[in-house]
Amino acid sequence: FFFNDTATTEIYTEQIVGSVRCVQETDLVEIMKSATLGYNNTGDIGASTNFDNLEDNNQTATNVKTHINLVNGIIEYTNSDLVDYKRQVEEFRQELNVMKTRILANNEEIFNVMTPPIDALFRDLKAKISEQKVENEKIQTQITELKREKSQIQQLII
User: Fold this and answer.
1) For 80-126, what is the HEC assignment?
2) Strands (DSSP E) along 3-72, which ranges?
3) Secondary structure (3-state) at 26
4) CA 145, CA 134: separation in Å to the nearest integer?
5) What whole-number distance in Å separates Cα of residue 63 and Cα of residue 33?
6) How many Å apart are CA 29 and CA 66, to the nearest integer?
7) CA–CA separation, 158 vs 154, rounded Å?
8) Hey, is 6 helix, strand or coil?
9) Torsions phi, psi of 12, nearest 5?
10) pLDDT tens digits along 98-141
11) pLDDT for the residue 158
12) Residue partners of 11: CB distance under 8 A and separation at least 6
């Protein structure tokens, strides 16, 4: 966004840089004019200015230099922010590694604490399954014996 008004000695470039930075003693309207002053549609400097008038050429050069200095300042602030962001990224990576280490340690502790009771329960389950199989075989044998006795009784009755 741009204000169409004379700036104070400080221009905040939050939208450009991403954080509040201060550019001192700069007229935003003058900078915007200087960004276009002295350029024609092909991008050549001076094509739209009067080369016969040396004062206009000096003014154009000063405006271009001012614009270049402003852009260089913004680049410096952006690079400073980039360094800060890289530092933050590295801090976040370190925090993630610490969290990952804690999670792995907690998982290992849970595994070590829960494995013995689970193993004991599994052994009990296997023992109960074996007991149930033996009991099922006994009951099946009794059922078979009862069926045989029933058939013998029916033979005697007939």
Assistant:
1) HHHHHHHHHHHHHHHHHHHHHHHHHHHHHHHHHHHHHHHHHHHHHHH
2) 10-12, 22-24
3) coil
4) 17
5) 8
6) 12
7) 6
8) coil
9) -90, 130
10) 999 999 999 999 999 999 999 999 999 999 999 999 999 999 99
11) 75
12) 22, 23, 26, 28
State residue 22 phi and psi, 5-degree precision.
Answer: -120, 130
Contact 13, 74 (CB under 8 A): yes
How far apart (Å, rounded) are the C-alpha atoms in residues 29 and 8? Answer: 11
Alpha carbon distance 49, 39 (integer Å): 8
On whether the CB atoms of residues 34 and 45 are closer than 8 A, the answer is no
Residue 35: its H or E element? helix 28-36
Residue 28: closest CA among 48, 49, 3:
3
Global pTM reads 0.42
Asked if 24 contacts 7 with a C-beta cutoff of 8 angstroms, the reply is: no
Residues 6+ apart with CB under 8 A from 53: none
State the residue for tokens 């852009």: 71
